[in-house]
Amino acid sequence: MRRTTLGQRIVVGTALLLVLYPLVVTRPTWQNAVILMLMTAQLGVAWNILGGYAGQVSLGHAAFFGTGAYVSTLLSVRLGVSPWLGMLAGGLTASAFSAVVGWPCFRLRGHYFAMATIAVVEIVQAVVNGWETLGGAVGLYLPLSDEKGFAGFVFNRSKLPYHYIALALLAVTLLANWLVARSRTGYYLRAIKDEPDAARSLGVSLTRYKLYAIALSSFFAATGGTLYAQKELFIDPGSTLSTALSIKIALVAILGGVGTLFGPVLGAAVLTGIEETTRILFGGSGRGTDVVVYGALVVLIAVYKPAGLMGWIGEWWRRRQGSSTEAP
């Protein structure tokens, strides 16, 4: 019989804990905190496909998140389309948009690419701010649907369904990440990240596979945008298309460990914990404290442990295993 590793037991235990959490912890404040953690983790895992495996550090993923939020909301408000279909439509629209944006941006490398993605999200935010059909700077409210429950994606009395939807969306995004990492495309993406010139010399089309990565990454980021819109029942450019949100999405993966499957999840747990703790302890007077704290964490990680928290945990575990092996 195949023995399970410690890592597998931790994953199964964490998954079980997340499934049971809202049934045990019934206080809405703490339920909402975990929902936010799951949503942030899902966005970090989505970003990881492009930034972790392909090595393209995007600081404009809020453009895709906002695309999903606005497309699903407009379809629901204007045409009465189911938010579930709107989620799919938003994801496909974001993928198409990312291909249009990625084609010229992928001609740039390193920090020039990151700067270009910041410009993209700023342009999108400015366009939406001035477009009355999209609600402009005022934003859009989602009316409470007559069709309650999962069919209408509206839950008035409990946060429980949002928890399980966010958990399911995270699980699907993790599965997609895992499949990509073990596919031929995943090997090509890592080759493009580590040795782009060598990959090109072997016949790998850098632009094509980068477009694959950004299309898949933006699709899942857009689905997260739909979930956010349905949970909050309100969207505006400041909450769905901000550069700060883009940076946060990237920081989750960078802190946890880029290119690792569960790094963004760990990073999201740490960052969300910091945000909620500072909000509870300091309230409005501590606004920005969370940014300072996790900004300092990222700097420390970048200087001392570039592989992120997952890299640090892996190094600690290898040392522990080595010391236990050497012991008499």
What composes the largest sheet? 2 strands, antiparallel
Q: Could you state the order of secondary-structure elements as H and E?
A: HHHHHEHHHHEHHHHH
Task: Determine the N-to-C terminus distance.
Answer: 28 Å
Query: Helix proportion of residues, in percent?
Result: over 70%
Number of strands: 2
Q: Hey, roughly how much beta strand do the residues contain?
A: under 5%
Radius of gyration: 20 Å
Principal-axis shape equals globular
Largest sheet, spatial ordering of strands: 1-2
Estimate the mean pLDDT confidence. Answer: 87
Pick out the low-confidence regions. Answer: none
Structural notes for this entry:
It is built from 14 helices and two strands; from the N terminus they run H-H-H-H-H-E-H-H-H-H-E-H-H-H-H-H. With 328 residues, it is an all-alpha fold. A two-stranded antiparallel sheet has the order 1-2. Helix 3 (62-79) crosses helix 9 (206-232), helix 6 (160-181) runs antiparallel to helix 9 (206-232) and helix 12 (263-282) packs antiparallel against helix 13. It is globular. The model has no long low-confidence stretch (mean pLDDT 87).
Please render the helix and strand layout as text.
Layout: H1 6-24, H2 28-53, H3 62-79, H4 83-105, H5 111-129, E1 140-141, H6 160-181, H7 184-194, H8 196-201, H9 206-232, E2 234-235, H10 237-240, H11 243-256, H12 263-282, H13 289-304, H14 308-326
Antiparallel strand pairs: 1-2
Helix pairs in contact: 1-6, 2-6, 2-9, 2-11, 2-12, 3-4, 3-9, 4-9, 6-9, 7-9, 11-12, 11-14, 12-13
